[in-house]
TrEMBL record:
Keywords annotated in UniProt: Aminoacyl-tRNA synthetase, ATP-binding, Cytoplasm, Ligase, Nucleotide-binding, Protein biosynthesis
Segments forming domain Aminoacyl-transfer RNA synthetases class-II family profile: 130-430
InterPro entries assigned to the protein according to its UniProt record, in alphabetical order: Aa-tRNA-synt_II, aa-tRNA-synth_II, aa-tRNA-synth_II/BPL/LPL, Asn-tRNA-ligase, Asp/Asn-tRNA-synth_IIb, NA-bd_OB-fold, NA-bd_OB_tRNA
Assembly description: Homodimer.
Name of encoding gene: asnS
Catalytic activity: tRNA(Asn) + L-asparagine + ATP = L-asparaginyl-tRNA(Asn) + AMP + diphosphate + H(+)
Name of the protein described by the UniProt record: Asparagine--tRNA ligase
EC nos: 6.1.1.22
Highest taxon in the source lineage: Bacteria
UniProt record similarity statement: Belongs to the class-II aminoacyl-tRNA synthetase family.
Length: 430
């Protein structure tokens, strides 16, 4: 019977065969412990010399790290193992021997590990992070499907820039200029006018020269957009959605969180509603905290966001930023034209901004003016303006950065570990 490690619970007391890799091993003269992994989980295989005989025991002792094998054995319950099971080995067949696997159980530097990312992914820690990433994606589809959203896929090759022109990846599109998408938002606005409530999930590209623990050149974003939703409605979707993904990870990734040493008590508290603070109040707060240099109209850097987030135990919305700091499409506050109806959601524990969102301008004339003020090519935005010409409605949306969210929920310091093959300022390989 060929099974996976995830299935062993159904086969207690039976003999099974598992296709696996040898993650690690230790042995004495009489017994060998094989740490086996097959992608679905980890299990310890125990090879007892007196039971398997001289030849098989020798073969087990000679196994090298990351060799691939078929392992046959009896499934036993074992309360000491984190998985609850152990395999008493009765047979071994080596599929391919691995010679001198570069990532040994000793400590390695980050650059070395990043150079070997194609192999590093096999480690327990990376396995746990990828499983949490997967759970967040699963819970995302679940949340939006359960709330009547339609998944829409915006293009990756685009002719216009939603988030400003300085960070665009330029390419040629036959005879024209084209850019890699830095946000699907403008297309999602068109989709919301057709389908009501929509969401996208896809890669985005930003030629940002930032070398921080929060920046990737290629990252994945979830972008919902809702027709007839105003500022408040938008925040409600965000807090319900973020609470849902956190609670789903807590429920379905206990082992992974444990392996990463995540303090889950902090995550348990992440339930709607989330606290809010206006940009104005945030500036006052920062002054009180000793950030005397920052003045109204300045953008917040990572230390400012961290200081604000530290005074809350849940994610916090910073709302109503100055218009001058934000992209052209954001709706000004009717009471105070110098601020926009936007919010950034800042994760707790120093993980920074995970969501940027806003109500969008739905007035044709105002939007045309903004496009001009931002010196964008009106021709490239002609189709976008037409959304305001034909049955314009108030609408809102947001973008959640997947990798920053994975970093926060997993408690992983740097976003480079939250995406299978990170694209960083100086890294295009592997
Ligand atoms: O705040 P941003 O730039 O918002 C937008 O792109 C909107 N058009 C989204 C929308 O309303 N549909 O980016 C949204 C999120 C950020 O909060 C952050 O989590 C993530 O995307 N993000 C990055 N993640 C990793 N590396 C980078 N360089 C990132 N830039 C933004």
């Amino acid at each position: 019977m060929k099974i996976t490690i995830a299935e062993v619970g159904q086969f207690v007391g039976q003999e099974v065969t598992i296709g696996a890799w040898l993650a690690n091993k230790r042995s004495s003269g009489k017994i060998a412990f094989l740490q086996l992994r097959d992608g679905t989980g980890f299990i310890q295989g125990v090879v007892v010399k007196s039971e398997v005989g001289e030849e098989l025991f020798k073969a087990a002792k000679a196994l090298t790290q990351e060799s691939s094998l078929y392992v046959t054995g009896m499934v036993q319950e074992d309360t000491r193992s984190p998985f609850g099971f152990e395999l008493t080995v009765t047979g071994l067949e080596v599929i391919a021997e691995a010679v001198d696997y570069p990532i040994t159980p000793k400590e390695h530097g980050t650059e070395f590990l990043m150079d070997h990312r194609h192999l590093w992914l096999r480690s327990r820690r990376q396995h746990a992070v990828m499983k949490i990433r997967n759970e967040i994606i699963r819970a995302t589809y679940e949340f939006f499907n359960d709330h009547g959203f339609v998944k829409v896929d915006p293009p990756i090759l685009t002719g216009s820039a939603p988030e400003g022109t300085s960070e665009l990846f330029h390419t040629r599109y036959f005879e024209e200029d084209a850019y890699l998408s830095q946000s699907g938002q403008l297309y999602m606005e068109a989709a919301a006018m057709a389908l009501g409530k929509v969401f996208s999930f896809g890669p985005t590209f930003r030629a940002e020269k930032s070398k921080t623990r929060r920046h990737l050149i290629e990252f994945w974003m979830i972008e919902p957009e809702m027709a007839f939703y105003e500022f408040e409605d938008n925040l409600k979707v965000q807090e319900d959605y973020v609470a849902h993904i956190v609670q789903s990870v807590l429920k379905n990734c206990r082992l992974e969180l444990e392996r990463l040493g995540r303090d889950t008590a902090k995550l348990e508290q992440v339930k709607a509603p989330f606290p809010r603070i206006t940009y104005d109040k945030a500036i006052e707060f920062l002054h009180e905290k000793g950030f005397t240099d920052i003045k109204w109209g300045d953008d917040f850097g990572a230390p400012h966001e961290t200081a604000i987030a530290e005074s809350f135990d849940k994610p916090v919305f910073i709302t109503h930023y100055p218009t001058s700091l934000k992209p052209f499409y954001m709706q000004p506050d009717k009471e105070r034209e110098e601020v926009v109806l936007c919010a950034d959601l800042i994760a707790p524990e120093g993980y920074g901004e995970i969501i940027g969102g806003s109500e969008r301008i739905h007035d044709l004339q105002l939007l045309s003016e903004r496009i001009k003020e931002h010196q964008l090519d009106p021709e490239a935005y002609k189709w976008y303006l037409e959304l305001r010409k034909y049955g314009s409605v108030p609408h809102s949306g947001f973008g959640l950065g997947l990798e920053r969210t994975v970093a926060w929920i997993s408690g992983v310091e740097h976003v480079r570990e939250t995406i299978p093959f990170p694209r960083l300022l100086n890294r295009l390989y592997p």
